[in-house]
Amino acid sequence: MYWSVIRPSWGSTLRTCHIPAICLYCTEHGKEVAMDNSNCRQCGDALSEQQKRRHSKYCSLECRRSGAARLYREANPSSTRTLGIAPSTIGAIGELLVSADLLKRGYNVFRSLSASADCDLVILTCRKLYRIEVTTGCKTRGGKLMYPEHDGHKYDILAVVVGNGITYFGELPEPTGKT
User: What's the confidence (pLDDT) of residue 42?
Assistant: First the structure.
C-alpha cells in the first residue's frame, strides 16, 4: 500500500488548533485519513497516547524503517535495488559514464582491465597521468551527497556518480587537446 502526503490549504476544515492537519490519501484503496498527529504516516494506524505526546510520526520501528526506505527511493530513483542490477554492473556503468564524460571534455582516458587495480581510470594530459577512482553515491533528502570512503592515496581525483550526474573531487587538469 502506498500513501501520498497531501497538505490542505489554511482554510481547510481539516485543522486542529492553529496548525493545519496533514492528510494521507491511500492510492490503493482510495481513502483519505486525517493526520492530526494521531495516525502513523506509513500505515495510517492510530498512534498511542505516549507516541502522540512524543510527536511520533510512525507507530512502530518497522513503519519508520519502511517510511525511510520509501523516502530514500523517492530521492534516489535509480538505486540498485529498484533497477535489479548487480552492484558490480552498476560500478561498471559508473566507470563508463565517467569515461564518456571525460572523453567529451577532451581527455585521453584509459580504463583498468583488472577489477583489483588501485584506480578505475587514468587520464593523460601534458605528459602526466592522473588516477581516477569512480564510486556510486546517493543524495539525502536534504541534498547532501553520500558515498563510501576510499583510500585517498590510491587516486588523484574521485568521481562520484549519482544517477546520470557526476561530481568530481580533486582538480581536473586542463585537457591537452582533441582525442
Answer: 87
